[in-house]
Amino acid sequence: MLTPFDDTYFMKKALDQAQEAYERDEIPVGAIIVSNNKVIARGHNLTEMLNDVTAHAEMQAITAAANFLGGKYLTNCTLYVTLEPCQMCAGALYWSQIYRVVFAARDEQRGYRVMGGKLHPKTKITEGLLEIEASTLLKKFFIKKRNLN
Amino acid sequence: MLTPFDDTYFMKKALDQAQEAYERDEIPVGAIIVSNNKVIARGHNLTEMLNDVTAHAEMQAITAAANFLGGKYLTNCTLYVTLEPCQMCAGALYWSQIYRVVFAARDEQRGYRVMGGKLHPKTKITEGLLEIEASTLLKKFFIKKRNLN
């Protein structure tokens, strides 16, 4: 059955962004932001290309979404991201008061939960959606890197 | 005695940035980044003007410093900032592996320590330098805001 606007549909869009990062030789993490069933922002990790630790997928998507909406609060938006946000991105999401965050792979090393960071108390969280697809792409990237060095 | 390159000298430069934010009607927080006794980046809060929760003083300074250095790691740099970083900025500083962070006013509400965030274990931290000057400017801003509303 076609379900064009469910979580899986949108997470696949985030995975498309992660694939773009992979093709640019960046750690493959992708994010999109959805408002009223419409993708209003997308981003993928660009830390290497931009030489900038702040250029995570989520940060770019948050900035782009606020730009689209003309306001900095994302209280009606959902972020779909292929990896659990780090504390920096969790902090940005906290300030944005985003309605909901859906992430795929857990990050046991640098995820915001293990680092001690917090999302906004109003933000709803769903985890593990398409986790295998997201982790497989990350693993493939790190294996490729290891073989090149 | 003239001590042009001590912490107080550089924190005053960060306070100048905070003053610029104040004049633009932004929450007055300013930051500079120093490498080899040279200011290589500056930033002040622009969240209102840019409609962007990520536009904190530190974030802009981190991006500008990496741009100046042509590399994303700030292992030889010191950040001077007029307010204790939030978890987003602490997260960005963590990724940058910055050598040292000096902040003025403590933030008991949204500072990274109360929020549970972490700087990099290698980063040295100094707090409370010119705290009164930094807090006075912040208080002045919030009093002005309250009187306008």
Automatic annotation (TrEMBL), chains A, B:
Keyword annotations of the record: Hydrolase, Metal-binding, tRNA processing, Zinc
Named cofactor requirement(s): Zn(2+)
Catalytic reaction annotation: adenosine(34) in tRNA + H2O + H(+) = inosine(34) in tRNA + NH4(+)
Gene that specifies this protein: tadA
Cofactor, how bound (note): Binds 1 zinc ion per subunit.
Organism of derivation: Mesonia aestuariivivens
Domain (CMP/dCMP-type deaminase): residue spans on this chain: 5-115
PROSITE patterns for this protein: CYT_DCMP_DEAMINASES_1 (PS00903), CYT_DCMP_DEAMINASES_2 (PS51747)
HAMAP family: tRNA_aden_deaminase
Family to which this protein belongs: Belongs to the cytidine and deoxycytidylate deaminase family. ADAT2 subfamily.
Keyword Cytoplasm part of the UniProt annotation: no
Binding site for Zn(2+): H56, C86, C89
Keyword Hydrolase annotated: yes
Subunit structure of this chain's protein: Homodimer.
Enzyme class, spelled out: hydrolase
EC number(s) recorded for this UniProt protein: 3.5.4.33
Active site: E58
Domain of life: Bacteria
Annotated function: Catalyzes the deamination of adenosine to inosine at the wobble position 34 of tRNA(Arg2).
Protein name: tRNA-specific adenosine deaminase
